[in-house]
Specification:
Layout lengths: L5 E7 L4 E4 L5 E10 L10 E8 L2 H8 L6 E13 L6 E13 L48
Parallel strand pairs: 4-6
Antiparallel strand pairs: 1-3, 1-5, 2-3, 3-4, 5-6
């Protein structure tokens, strides 16, 4: 038996968009950011998954959330085809049946801090051995660029 069921738990990426349709219905669109497992190089990667709903109750739940709030959605994976027969555009999205704020047991997003200028980053001098294993991943500061010959 075939099944098309999708469950996503992630963060709302931005404010919800609503578009009225010619038949009087409204389509509500948003994106859910879902973290992948650690990438093989150690960098965290994410997917931004487009979601839509035609259900007013589901749309109300999503409208009441702020960007970066955690959300759990369930629905079906859809492929929509737009455009004239000579230039079709294929879009993939999750058509959401239910949405709810995700539980408080999820980790809160890390607060974003302003980037520190390299001069104030307290990095060791390139001739000194690094004391922190993360400092080995930071390239040394370049004060000037040599002219190309």
């Amino acid at each position: 038996m075939d099944r098309n069921e999708v469950v996503l738990v992630g963060r709302l990426s931005a404010a919800v968009e609503e578009h009225p349709l010619p038949n009087g219905d409204t389509v509500t669109k948003w994106r859910v950011i879902v973290r992948r497992r650690r990438h093989r190089r150690g960098a965290a990667m994410t997917d931004s998954i487009p979601c839509v709903t035609f259900n007013p109750e589901t749309a109300e739940v999503v409208r009441n959330l702020k960007p970066r709030d955690y959300i759990e959605v369930s629905g079906s994976f859809r492929c929509r085809v737009f455009g004239p027969s000579t230039a079709k555009i294929w879009r993939y999205e999750v058509e959401v049946n239910t949405a709810q704020p995700a539980g408080a047991d999820l980790p809160s997003p890390t607060p974003q801090t302003a980037p520190t200028p390299l001069a104030e980053a307290n990095l060791p001098h390139p001739t000194q051995p690094p004391t922190d294993p993360l400092t080995t991943l930071i390239p040394p500061q370049v004060h000037y660029l040599a002219p190309a010959s």
